Amino acid sequence: xxxxxxxxxxxxxxxxxxxxxxxxxxxxxxxxxxxxxxxxxxxxxxxxxxxxxxxxxxxxxxxxxxxxxxxxxxxxxxxxxxxxxxxxxxxxxxxxxxxxxxxxxxxxxxxxxxxxxxxxxxxxxxxxxxxxxxxxxxxxxxxxxxxxxxxxxxxxxxxxxxxxxxxxxxxxxxxxxxxxxxxxxxxxxxxxxxxxxxxxxxxxxxxxxxxxxxxxxxxxxxx
Amino acid sequence: xxxxxxxxxxxxxxxxxxxxxxxxxxxxxxxxxxxxxxxxxxxxxxxxxxxxxxxxxxxxxxxxxxxxxxxxxxxxxxxxxxxxxxxxxxxxxxxxxxxxxxxx
Lengths: 223, 104
Prior knowledge:
The structure holds 2 protein chains of 2 kinds. By secondary structure, chain A is mainly α. Chain A has 2 domains: 3-68, no CATH class; 78-221, no CATH class. Chain A is built from 12 helices and no strands. Chain A is elongated, with a radius of gyration of 25 Å. Chain A starts with a helix and ends with a helix. Chain B has 4 helices and 3 strands; from the N terminus they run H-E-H-H-E-E-H. By secondary structure, chain B is α+β, with helices and mostly antiparallel strands. The model of chain B has no long low-confidence stretch (mean pLDDT 87). The chains are: A mainly alpha, B alpha+beta.
């Protein structure tokens, strides 16, 4: 196996910057070893199993998959603000569509209109707050990832759900589980919503893991 | 202590004396153990990078004889981890010695 083939296997899945660093170190090692009189084949064989090395390197470095979960942030301008709002557009559109439907069918009730409008306002505020914090406040990668996740419409929805469940629990502890069971049986949409929420939570775990790697890399590399 | 933990201890032990780059660390392990221990480079660099991720070592690119090399140095947390791991290793050696005997 040539050094290039070995490195290509070992650095598979790493972001380009990490690939460059790993390659530079192994090639420098090879250069030193050749200068000391070692044979190339002997050196590459000493590198061991590239697949195993790759597995360990992916634990230490940012992978392409990790990078997808990093918070890119927003520009501190109107363009950045509108980008943050556009990311939530699909979720904001839901109460608006329901509101329009109720208006068109003439079934709009004042309390439903109020609820829909307050939902839209909350979502717009959450998007704005996310834009402001991520574009203006200097944060380390981990709190940044946490805030980005928390200020997403799905997280807001989760918080509301937890508040409602907490309130129900405070009312009657034993009634919540049967209530959830009956709700799940009655509406398959609820199961879908819970699955989406579980996926959303898993995104937080991945985002935090990626941010922790970035934070560790920033702390480990001296300027 | 498994092989990976042993390698981490060896790396920290080498870096305790002075900052070194990868090839020099591998050579120091080989030389100090009189050729008995051989850090396979395939696992040496991932171990170094993981130690860096955990904040036990720091790295910096330096020019050595007109060549660019990444040099690693122990952090304060690395020194503490070395002291702890060394104690664990000595306890393990003593325990194995007590079982197999022959140490006098």
